[in-house]
Amino acid sequence: MVIEAVVFDFGGVLLDWNPRYLYRKVFSDEREMEYFLTHVCTPAWNASLDKGKPFAQGVAELTALYPEYAEQIKMYDTRWEEMRGAVIQGSVDLLYRLKKHYPLYGLTNWSAEKFALTRPKYDFFELFDGIVMSGEEKEIKPEPRLFEILLERYALTPEKTVFTDDSPSNIEAALKQGFQAIHFETSGKLEKALKEKGVVLN
């Protein structure tokens, strides 16, 4: 099958992101930090923000439930940029090589209000021919609808489209849609997997 397009997830593939980068500065006790991130500002709560819930609303709702953590919950909004880690340079290098041969698309779970803070800081986002974002569409991976929006909007054929993501559940969802899906672990492994699928890289 000849590959016609390549799709990238963003967080964990092109940019490192982890709330612990912020909260290790906030909590002196690692165990309390982990409790906070698993019982208060949970992955499920973060997903609701990625799906388009305004941060102000999410913070207010959670503060009402956990007033003892009001200050730390607020930081999830006001100090959000401190959760963003380094560029995953090997992946960005692959983007520039791929762009010579293929249209590139982004398919990301990301709050639209926070992506607006991030996009201007990184030139590589300009390489993308289109970006489908959970926060704008109010749909989220691994649910199928976000994948369908990507395919419909850009007239992509899933069997001729490579998709990479660091989440196994998102890869499973992409495979069900017919994508040529690659679970991202390292940039080196991604390059090898792309070549195995016949993707041109030079």
Keywords:
two-stranded antiparallel ribbon, 2 domains, Rossmann fold, elongated, five-stranded parallel beta sheet, 7 strands, 49% helix, 202 residues, single chain, alpha/beta
Order of helices and strands: EEHHHHHEHEHEHHEHEH
Q: Percentage of helical residues? A: 40-55%
What's the structural domain tally? Answer: 2
Strand order of the largest sheet: 5-4-1-6-7
Q: CATH topology of the largest domain, which one?
A: Rossmann fold
- What CATH architecture of the largest domain do you see? 3-Layer(aba) Sandwich
N-to-C span: 19 Å
Q: Which strand-content bin applies to the residues? A: 5-15%
How confident is the prediction overall: mean pLDDT? 97
What would you call the structural class? alpha/beta
CATH class of the largest domain: Alpha Beta
Largest sheet: 5 strands, parallel
Give the CATH superfamily of the largest domain.
Answer: HAD superfamily/HAD-like
Low-confidence residue ranges: none
Let me know the number of strands.
7
What is the CA-atom radius of gyration, in angstroms?
18 Å
Compute the number of helices. Answer: 11
Write the layout of secondary structure elements.
Elements: E1 5-8, E2 15-17, H1 20-26, H2 30-40, H3 43-50, H4 55-65, H5 70-78, E3 84-87, H6 89-99, E4 104-108, H7 112-118, E5 130-133, H8 134-137, H9 144-153, E6 161-165, H10 168-177, E7 180-183, H11 187-196
Parallel strand pairs: 1-4, 1-6, 4-5, 6-7
Antiparallel strand pairs: 2-3
